[in-house]
Structures are given as structure tokens and as C-alpha cells.
Amino acid sequence: MWKNAFAYVTRQKFKSLLLALIIMVMATLSLLSLSLRSAVKAAGRNNFKNITNSFSLQINRYYNQGTARGAGNIKGEDISKIEQSEYVASSTKRINAVGDLVDNEIIDIDPVSGRALETKEHFEKALMVTGVGDSEKETKFVGKTYVLTAGEHLKPTDKHQVLVHEELAKKNNWKIGDKFKLRSNIYDADNEKKAEETVEVTIKGFFSGKNKRAVTFAANYYANEIITDLTTAAAMYGYTPENALYQDATFFVRGEEDLDKVFSNLQKLSIDWRAYKLLKSADNFPALQASINGVNKISRNMGILSISLAMIILSLCLLIFLQARKREAAIKLALGMNKLQIVGQFFMELLLLATFALPAAYAVAWSIGDNMQKFILQQVNRGIQRQLLQAAAAGNLGGGAESDSFNQTLQTLTLNIGAQDVVPVLIGSIVVIVISLLLASYFILHKSPKELLSDVL
Questions:
Q1: Most buried by CB count within 10 Å: which residue of 102, 147, 194, 199?
Q2: Count of domains in the chain?
Q3: Could you tell me if 13 and 71 lie in one domain?
Q4: Exposure of 152 in the CB half-sphere (CA atoms within 13 A)
Q5: Last residue of a domain, which of 220, 253, 283?
Q6: What pTM did the predictor assign?
Q7: pLDDT tens profile 92-132
Q8: Cα angle vertex 437, ends 435, 440, to 5°?
Q9: Which segments within 77-160 are labelled E, that is strand?
């Protein structure tokens, strides 16, 4: 049977080449579809590795507008109640503040026009100060808006330590281990106590990052933000970590507890839940999730479309080609072969073509896969960014690191076609071949040898 299959395939070169090409295209698109989903899954794990099974406590702006400047006003005692829950293994929290840079200079260059800025009166030296318990888990580092380039991340035990932007460090000739002073800004609306504290801090590391769009205020320029410990940030407003108001807090759940179940139980705590809301940490990156979902949707549609079209086209081609082989089928039936043997012969021919088409599909998928993934990701991200820009323009939103982190999309995908992709495509190709062949062989399976011969005479 194999010998006959090989003889027919090599004799009918055009038909064989066309059928092999159909199988190869289907297998190539299927491989690319599966590899794309694998790449997205791996990228998602990498991007969300620091927030898996965690959630955040944020203000509910529908009932709670936050501080005078719109920052979070979460009470430390409410955070402590959640920290003491049996479901929480660890936590990290943030304080947002404004502080003046003493005896040094902020970045005063407009990143859009390149002209010097006249910063608003009383804020000529103002920096955004973000206090964190663990900077590695801070939203902007998790979302890759900021990337640590030198030194070490801040730990919960650190006091009066800071991470500064490379550009700010370059302007002031700072190196790791250098010290500088921060002072409260009495004109900041959130400095309700009119604190006038001065704190000397030590540089523990540098980070990089670049604004994605124009900023409204100089303080929203990435280089004009410093990441520091909770003690330093709280001091800007005359508080301690114990009585300060927090921007938000992130909690890491024990084991594999279901977050919906955790939320349901936490609602029983004596906390004013109208003022706050619980949010799954992955939901803090909606643009990233939209990017992942968008690529997955294209991948899924590509797989369905490739299989459906291949089955239709292969069935039609086989129907045409097998019509021309009615006489051959009738003679074989007359010589004593049964119908399943004849269809089996056709299946062997297709299987022989598949043995050449599938390795070719694997090679083609590797050669074009990387560029295809980049193109799909670019198209998905372009659509998301267009929506974000429209929303920002409508809401007159600024371009600070916090909003850019919130709007971060998936940036890269790594092509990897492994056995987990090849095996399903191999099985799927055989299934498609069998179904297509059965559909095209209907006239053979349901006619007698006499009827087949009469059709060709």
C-alpha cells in the first residue's frame, strides 16, 4: 500500500504539490497560533510574577475623593486589620508625598519641546516622593515603567534610603552612597499640618524610565520622582509610618487561596468599605491584560480559521481529484478490494504528503514566527494606545509614571515552538485529513462498482 501511495504521489506531481501545500499552510498557521499563545502565557507569567495571587486596597473614588491633591487617604490601622487576616502572608504599602530638593536641582527640561520650564511658584524644587516598604513590588517597577539599573532595591527595614532616576543623578553628579536632603513643601495641598521637616537620605540605587507622553507639571517627569522608604515619605507631612495616610497597599495571599473568597471574608472586618475597594493586583494593569487578551484572541482566531479553511479547501480539492479516480476505484472494487481499502490507499497518499509538509511547516513557522509575533503585538498595542490617548485627551490626564504604569502594554514576545505545539498540530492535521477524505470519498463509499463504472463510461 505504501509502495502504491509513493508511486501515485511521485507520478501526479502537480496534484501532490498542491495537496502538500494546503497541509503545510494549515500546519504552519496552527503552529504559529499555538506558539503565539505559549509566548503570551510565558510573557504574562513574567510580567505578573511579582503580583501572582495578590490584591490591593485602594480608595473608592465614588465615595472617597482622597486627599486635597487627590492622593490616597487610607488609614494605617485599616491596613493593619487586613494584614492580620489569616489569608495574608505579607504586604507592602505606599505613601505619596511632595518634597523639595535642598541644595540640588530638579530636571527643568520640557521633554516635548526641549525648552527650559518656568516651574510653578513655590514648586521650583519639588519632587514626587513615593514611600514604599519593598520597592521591587512597587507598581511602577512591577509594570516595568521603572527599571533598576544600579544598586539595590529598598527593603522594609530601610530608613532614609532612596532610589533616584539616572537623569537626576547625572544632573547633580550623584553616585550610589551619596547623601542629599529633602524638605517638606509647606505649599503642597496635602501638607495639611504645614510640616517643615528636613531629612537627609542616602542613595541606594538608580533606575531608568522615560515618559511616554507630554507631562502637565515638572513633577510628573519621571526623573523628578524619587522612591524612598515609608519613614522618609511620611516625614514630608509630619507623620510617622504608624499614623500616616497611605496611597494604597498590596497584600500577598497565603498558598493558593481564591481571591474572591478572600474578598468575601475581608468584607466582614470593621472597615469603612464605602471609602475603600479591593482590587486583584492583575487588574491594576488593565492595558497589559488587554494586550494579552488581544493577542490571545488573534491567536485563537488564527487557529480556528486555518483549520476551517484547510478542511474546506482540502475537501474540495480531494473531491475534484477523486472524481477523476472513479474508474480506478471501480476496477479495484471489481478485483475484490473493499471500499475501506481503497479509501485507506488514498489516506496513505495524503499521509505520505504530510510527512513532507509538516517538517516544512515547522521550518516556515520558525522562519517567519518572530516577525509575525512582533507585527501582531504592534497592531494590538497600537489599538490599545489609541484608546488610551483618546481617554487621556477627554479627561485631560497627565503623563506621569503612575498613569504610564497603569497603561503599560505587553512589550515583547519570545518565539518558542516546542513539542507542546508540534504534537497537537500533528494530531490535528491527521484529523483534518481524515475528515476531508471521508467527505470527498462519499461517492465511493455509497456507490457500487457498477454505478462507479457507469459514471465514467
A1: 199
A2: 2
A3: no
A4: 7
A5: 283
A6: 0.63
A7: 899 999 999 998 988 886 655 544 444 567 788 889 999 99
A8: 110
A9: 88-102, 126-132, 147-151
